[in-house]
Amino acid sequence: MALFLLLLLVAVVLGIIGVAAEGLGLLLAIGIVVFAATVISFAVRVLLRTRRRPVR
Questions:
Q1: In what helix (H) or strand (E) does residue 52 lie, and over which residues does it extend?
Q2: pTM of the model
Q3: 12 contacts 31 by C-beta, under 8 angstroms
Q4: What does the alpha-carbon distance between residue 18 and residue 54 come to, in Å, rounded to a whole number?
Q5: Residues 6+ apart with CB under 8 A from 33
Q6: Which residues 6+ apart lie within 8 Å of 6 measured at CB?
Q7: Which residue in 15, 4, 12, 6 sits closest to 40, CA to CA?
Q8: Distance from C-alpha of 18 to C-alpha of 7, rounded to nearest angstrom
């Protein structure tokens, strides 16, 4: 969970710097990619965790 929050924070900071600084649109793109990867990895982790429970 800490890694998820750290990557989410990095994505937000990169996005803010990319929007605020002139000509640093690449940072915004990198922030979007990091955000998407973070959300996908979190969703996969949650999905795999729910499948491990035995049926009662």
A1: none
A2: 0.71
A3: yes
A4: 46
A5: none
A6: none
A7: 4
A8: 16
Distance CA 17, CA 50 (A): 36
Q: Residue with structure tokens 């049926």?
A: 55
Give the span between the Cα atoms of 53 and 56, in whole angstroms: 9
Structure tokens at 42: 């979190």
What residues contact 54, with CB distance under 8 A and at least 6 apart? none
pLDDT in tens, 1-56: 788 888 888 888 888 888 888 778 788 888 888 888 888 988 888 888 766 666 66
